[in-house]
Amino acid sequence: MPSLLGIDSGLTVTKAVVFDIDGTPLAVARRRVTQFMPKARHVERDMDELWSRTADAIAEAIKLSNRPASDIQAIATTAHGDGIYLLDKASKPLGRAILSLDSRAGSIVERWLKSPLADEALSLTGQLPHVSAPSALLAWIKANEPERFGQIAHILSCKDWLRFCLTDVIGTDRTEASTSFTNVSTQDYSPDALKLFGIPEVTGALPPASRSDEVVGYVTEAVAKQTGLAEGTPVVAGLHDVTASALGAGGYASGVVAVIAGTYSINETLSSEPRVDGRWFCRNAIAPGQWNNMSISPASSANYEWFLDKLCASDIASAEAAGRSIHAVLAPEIEAAFNRPSSALFHPYLFGSPYGAEASASFFGLGGWHDRGDMLRAVLEGIAFNHKIHVDALSDGFSFNQARLAGGVSRNPIVVQMFADVLGMPVTVTEIDEAAAWGAALCAGTGIGVYSSPENDPRDVGKIARTYHPDSARSADYRNRYDLFRDIAEAMTPLWPRIGDLATQHSQG
């Protein structure tokens, strides 16, 4: 029976998903990948470990599918965007990869944003530079690690590294190519962009860009032995996970805003012409002549996962021992908290924010009578409020009246209803747990002719989707809470740098 393999590598977990060509997930295998934080604002991973863990996940997914590897007709990778994965002249990893949660280039970006470069970058590339953009990270490496900078031979993204491991072919796709260095009008690489950011030396290190659904290589003999894949299986170029998630969730279209509550707060809508604004990135869509407009910040479900890891560790261990999900264990606490008044608010800025790299996370309004459920509610509301900042920005430039929600929190109906109430519009969730991997699989199937285009989803999306409508009374209440959330953030803006300075100060005496 024909099947497809979608590989989806996030910031903490890499996974392999085998799909039937009708969209049914046959098997999922996951592996955690180590994050290294050697100093403040540095977030890295070992590239060889990433591939090793991904290869293990592929092997397990094939085994769990109960089908021979030869049934897999094509493969596509998707992964977190931005950040940077560098190779030297021998095509070996040039140090650890820098993840999109990294903000070491904050001072460089702050300087750029206060100079004429900001407007020039927006006009040329369709986006303002930000701390995890390849442009900023390369500028940081040039300034701080000149020896490493001089050895750069290939500039890749996460999914491009995995694709290279599968095929030995260097390259990227159109969606990933537009993270820093393409002309927003022509949608092709622009040497002027590299000159603008002061890094023209690496122009030749940019990988060739293909369509996301274009076959670009084949599984090598070595990879076949390592993973159990069939040698020669076609591999397509793949795509940025932001786009893959919207595609897999049925939200890749104009007139719809796709809301991806993952590590990043992703909010995006498609357009047939470039529309540039500092509040969103105007990047390449899958097809030429289309643009994916994304308003984002690294401030979504990573905050919830952090809370679980740091403050619920014993409950996680107990849940796993009992064969239960920690989310199911906490659901009654969260539901109870949503059903009572609370003054607790949380700004989800552990790894970044729409207010710049200097913002930090914080609880406000906590009292001794609040419990863990109240804090979890505040975290989830803060995540939704942050999405609303971005959705409201996009609504100023594009017309849409419905949202598609994907990401781990979309599995909880209470949270989905909260998103509908906060956004003030219908929110639809699709009953698929692996939206990004399925988006990649759609590109894989298109590359070998199974589908006419990535948008030609074989599923009856209407039958596997549920729409939540906002409640007028709750929406009014959330508008008040949201306004206070924004007022506090504005008031904190001059104080966040002073808080950040404390991390560099040492007590005396």
Task: Describe, in plain words, how this protein is organized in 3D.
- It comes from Rhizobium hainanense.
- Residues 258-445 form the Carbohydrate kinase FGGY C-terminal domain.
- Helix 14 (372-395) packs across helix 15.
- The protein has helices spanning 47-65, 106-113, 117-125, 134-144, 146-150, 158-167, 174-177, 191-196, 221-227, 241-248, 302-311, 313-321, 326-338, 372-395, 413-423, 435-447, 472-492, 496-501; strands at residues 3-9, 13-20, 25-32, 44-45, 72-79, 85-87, 97-98, 154-156, 172-173, 209-210, 215-218, 234-236, 239-240, 257-261, 265-271, 281-284, 291-297, 345-347, 362-364, 403-406, 427-430, 465-468.
- It starts with a strand and ends in an 8-residue tail after the last helix.
- The protein has two domains: 3-237, Nucleotidyltransferase, domain 5, CATH 3.30.420; 301-430 and 464-503, Nucleotidyltransferase, domain 5 (2-Layer Sandwich).
- It is globular and about 60 Å long.
- It has a seven-stranded mixed β-sheet with strand order 16-17-15-14-20-21-22, sandwiched between helices. The chain has a five-stranded mixed β-sheet with strand order 3-2-1-5-13, with helices on both faces.
- The chain is 38% helix and 19% strand.
- Strand 20, helix 15 and strand 21 (427-430) form a beta-alpha-beta unit.
- With 509 residues, the chain is α/β, with parallel strands linked by helices.
- The model has no long low-confidence stretch (mean pLDDT 94).
- The chain contains 18 helices and 22 strands.
